[in-house]
Amino acid sequence: MGDVPRRGGVPRRGPGFCVAVKANAYGHGAARLAGIAFEEGAEAVGVATVEEGALLRDAGIEGRILLYSIATAQESPLIVELGLEPFVADKEWIEALANASGRRPDGAESEKPLACHLKVDTGMGRIGCRPEDAGELASLIAGAPGLSLAALCTHFPAADVEDQSFTREQLARLDEALSGISRQGVHVPAVHAANSGATLALPESYRNMVRPGIATYGYFPSHDQRRTLELKPVMEFESRVAFVKKVYPGETVSYGRTWCAGRETVIATIPAGYADGYNRLLSNRGEVLLFERTGRARRVPVAGRVCMDQFMVDCGPDSHVAVGDRVVLFGPDRRGPDAEELADAIGTIPYEVLSQVNARVPRLYL
Ligand SMILES: *Cc1c(COP(=O)(O)O)cnc(C)c1O
Q1: Which of 16, 136, 25 is nearest to 88 (CA)?
Q2: Ligand 1, from 26, 87, 152, 195: best to mutate by most atoms within 8 Å of Cβ?
């Protein structure tokens, strides 16, 4: 949207940013990250549920909040009250919102129409109207007294691969929808589409605003895209050694006795487990970065099964590990694993590793 004001008042040329802060900002803490996003010049933030939007409003976030998923009709009055900007894709949802927005609790008409984002399915197959139906739905929104059309948008299922031909086809379908709407005489104030994959690789997809998520948290959406710039992971998941002991050949560690000492060694217990978001599939597989008081930082492997609240690591026979030593489960330090390495080890993606970090884990913002 032309000149975007940045912190310090220096205008930046280019598209606006809508930063995804759904799923507790991919585990980072939604309220704090939304605040930072707006300080850094974001035009909006994106949530998946009405409750996530309510949490942000309760935390004092006053900026624009886009609601990426379709909610229920029962939630529409709350959407209006919170001033969320919902994605819409069918007549029923538009009518539910129009009903809620047309009426205030005192019966009077709302002064401010609810800004809706018409979502076109150009190939994601999740939510969205068909491109040929966009014109009719846009007219419906424009004609509803309580609603306004804020933007036309879509989503890409394969923008994080080297070959962008499918994403380009999607952009053509988006343009087709846009012309359909113009033919109905409805003005479209903005268009947005790009997730992290497209933001990193396809400037022609930017339109008025980009909607990255994972890239803002320092990870690439996939391995299948050329990495033309460096991203630095934002989150460091750390803990402290809670207990240290020696084990002797033949002794086992943790549930199921899947790890057995083949030599005398030093085992440290870490007070974090799968309920904190350290995936149980990392049993006998993960590695953590251990900072011994001697100043040494090195990787040590998980020994045995990860429990709900604790897991053990094998520090080796000569270790000087002590209670209170810092361990990094994943983070930006190149000597240790990052969320992508852990994701690769257990067959998932960094999105899942990050968003699984449970709410009980204290977040410190440095
Ligand atoms: C989650 C989401 C995004 C961000 O996706 P990333 O791959 O994390 O960049 C953008 N748009 C919509 C609609 C989303 O649901």
Answers
A1: 136
A2: 195
